[in-house]
Amino acid sequence: MAPHLSRRFLLQSAALAAAAPAFAYAASGRAAAATLPAPAAWTLRPFELKDVKLGQGVFAAKRQLMLDHGRGYDVDRLLQVFRANAGLSTRGAVAPGGWEGLDGEANGNLRGHYTGHFLTMLAQAYGSTGEQVYADKVRAMVGALTEVRAALRTAPAVLGVSGRFGTGAENVRGSYQYVDLPAAVLGGASAITLSAWVKPTHNANWTRVFDFGNDTTRYMYLAARNATGLPRFAITTGGAGGEQGLNGTAALPLNQWSHLAVTLAGSTGTLYVNGTAVAQNTSMTLSPAALGTLANNWLGRSNYPADPVFAGAFDEFNVWSRALTAAEITALQTSSAASSAAGRGNLASYAFDETAGGTFADASGRALTATLRRTWGGPSHPGFLAAYPETQFIALESMTSGDYTKVWAPYYTAHKILRGLLDAYLHVDDARALDLASGLCDWMYSRLSKLPDATLQRMWGIFSSGEFGGIVEAICDLHALTGKAEHLALARLFDLDKLIDACAANTDTLDGLHANQHIPIFTGLLRLYDATGEQRYLTAAKNFWGMVVPVRMYGIGGTSTAEFWKARGVVAGTISDTNAESCCAYNMLKLSRMLFFHEQDPKYMDYYERALYNQVLGSKQDKADAEKPLVTYFIGLTPGHVRDYTPKQGTTCCEGTGMESATKYQDSVYFKAADGGALYVNLYSPTTLNWSEKGVTVTQTTDYPREQGSTITIGGGSAAFALRLRVPSWATAGFRVTVNGGAVSGTPAAGSYFTVSRTWRGGDVVRISVPFRLRVEKALDDASLQTLFFGPVNLVARNSATSYLPFGLYRNAALSGDLLPTLTPVTGKPLHYTLDGTEFAPFSEGTEDPTHAYFRRTEPRLVFGNTDSGVANPARANGTTLLDEIWAGAPFSGKSALVARVQSVVNAWVSASLLGAADGQRVVNTAQNASYVA
């Protein structure tokens, strides 16, 4: 059993949170404050989205597509599954489907997650643009979720709808509600008639109109649909094998009222549908009297636990202690029982006229009041909020292996909801969202704090079912706002010790693990380090990052194949059509960003640029769509792969994170030092920063990466600070900075930050020049398999071939080592080139062209300046070719330096008997006679 919170721990946690602002709730929904305090451990601070405005460019264009999608989407569709779970009216909305609907993969066991993503997207959209439409949608969603939680806190209440003869009672699909009748309802009758009006809204088989029984041995039921979709009545004292039954001849229509009646008398049973006898069995020996007193007397629920609950509406349900005649059954088609010759049922009669409360009156005179109930009872804590019952959380506690058809990552879904609520509070100032978030974590603590540590460790180690996403980060953020010791204690209950300890010891155990199940764990560990100071959390996160970058990373910045990691260093050996799950890139960006807050190692922002400008941008299709966000799940890196922007059944995790990414592209362009003494420019992107503490604005004007540089203009008053400009690790062709036209002294080094310190004044202009070069990156396990980069831009070949394309690049390489002269620019299409008849384009372009992210490097002959020596390009046993060794010496100061390098390398290869002397001389002569691009 996890220990109760000690007084000492409570006091320590309270002290850690002393700087956190209090929060208040107001009837208006406005919060007193909505700022997340920056941890003292962060040496840098981010700016809020509202402080950084995107200018025109590739990011703004991609974002606009997502903004339009969010603006037009009906949020009632997202709320449908939440309202259904609470038994509330779904307002006629149709759930998005896919993973967010009951009919999606694994029966919709992940539903609710996408709503959380969408809430974050809308909140960020408002934070980024200030457009009121997004705030209005956020508030509408938060208001609805508040109503959902309130409904879940109480017993279910009747949902009155238009009935067959007045008012009916609706059982919303996904509410798991049924009507519980008193045990005396059948009265031990030997002859009986049961009559009901039903309006089914879903075609699930084995849903019950009624089921009276003790278990799966003794029962009597009427199913709206049997295994073949037909109505079925059955009675048994010996289980399914002993059923005496009646089957209908046609399926009941959906969304229409149908009348069903069953009569039993002597040995004859008859099933009527809409007044017509459709089945009769004259060999029935069982009656309700043979069943005895039964424990479960239900409308809408089966005694078989796996059977679905009836979805639809009930109107009159009557039970008579005799078999009505056919004429009496016919009369029930056009009038209520009370107005018919048969009269109300003398054993039970429910008109379902109630429009409030959770009970139904019995008009038979026997006072058998019926009660509306949930199959799962109700939440264990008033803070519970979900789009499905608490049962998945309960089942997880006893699971020993994953099965997503039974339990699919319930705490992962809880994280998405929690994160969406926090973002609604932070960006839109809706205090109700913070109340919901706090209550949700109170509920989680009430569950998890009671479990033994061994149970928690087992749960969190289960594939898929035990996945919890970035919940620890979100809980720590909540703790920073509330200061509640229980919230910090809750965050620590998610510690997966075997993973943390291995990474803290720098022991790589990632082979075979599900990538996205584990990446966000480490962002949470960093936040736990911030809150507790426990060093192993920070060490584990830093070491883990190095186990992914670069040893399990593809050129675009993505990681994983078929969602899993393989052995470190294996890249070529993992290329498939299911590489680079988009969620992985999203979470690696978050981790890199947060690591940089702690330690300003440029490698984190180098990775950030790589993944953002390539995989993240390229995962969003360049197309508008009202129904779907058009974001990839996997990005296949196999030759000729065509990206799928409508993956699986829709509303997937990657579409969710893709929506989030597209509304926060600017969140890491600028950071400020904790003491306000420096401004970090991490990314070159057209943006305007409003640095209110300094009273200045910082505007970048650029078409980067189409432009090889950026212009920064200072606006406002004067302020002293150091401007720290990132020099990308690939920027080996020179990085130059001028201020107001004058060169800044110093030598910028690739893979560092170049600092310009001064008192800045309005009108100051900083010009950054970042020359690009074309280069290759080799797969770690196959040097001949390569991907092409021009500056930060991954260039992919567009070709429908399904095998690796062979390309050589040295034939017209420049003296600088730049391979670009070998390619031909495409007129009117920036960053597009051709080589050997194939077009290369930026990976970031969200098209449906077949692409080759990797190609097979082949340099069969020794060619210099497009002049062929006629000599084959020899290779060492390790695959290194003569040309590789020559060009490894670039850049060259001039032609003579290159020729000297050729002579030196040729002499070494001739001496090693790897090249003939005569061929060697031809190579040197060719290099001497060729002309080169500088």
Helix-strand layout with pairing:
Elements lengths: L6 H10 L27 E3 L5 E3 L3 H15 L2 H11 L27 H17 L2 H21 L7 E3 L4 E5 L5 E4 L11 E9 L7 E6 L5 E5 L8 E5 L7 E4 L10 E8 L2 E6 L2 E6 L6 H4 L4 E4 L12 E9 L5 H6 L16 E3 L8 E2 L9 E5 L16 H6 L13 H19 L2 H18 L4 H8 L10 H12 L2 H8 L4 H8 L10 H18 L2 H14 L33 H17 L3 H17 L34 H9 L8 E4 L4 E4 L5 E5 L4 E6 L7 E8 L2 E9 L8 E4 L2 E2 L8 E9 L4 E5 L4 E6 L2 E9 L2 E6 L7 E2 L16 E2 L7 E3 L2 E5 L8 E2 L2 E3 L3 E4 L2 E6 L9 H6 L7 H17 L5 H13 L5
Parallel strand pairs: 20-24, 32-37
Antiparallel strand pairs: 1-19, 2-21, 3-4, 4-15, 5-14, 5-18, 6-11, 6-15, 7-8, 7-14, 8-9, 9-10, 11-12, 12-13, 15-16, 17-18, 19-20, 21-22, 22-23, 23-28, 24-27, 25-26, 25-28, 29-30, 30-31, 30-37, 31-35, 31-36, 33-34, 34-35, 38-39
Helix pairs in contact: 1-13, 3-5, 4-5, 4-9, 4-19, 9-10, 9-12, 10-13, 12-13, 12-15, 14-16, 15-16, 15-17, 17-18, 21-22
List keywords for this structure.
8-stranded antiparallel sheet, 22 helices, alpha+beta, 934 residues
H/I helix tally: 22
Percent helix range:
25-40%
Q: Which overall shape is indicated by the principal axes computed on the Cα atoms?
A: elongated
| Overall residue-averaged pLDDT value | 95
What profile does the largest beta sheet have? 9 strands, mixed
Please report which band the strand proportion falls in: under 5%, 5-15%, 15-25%, 25-35%, 35-45% or over 45%.
15-25%
Structural class label: alpha+beta
Q: Please give the oligomerization state of what you see.
A: single chain
Low-confidence stretches: 1-33
Distance between the termini: 71 Å
Radius of gyration: 34 Å
How many β-strand runs? 39
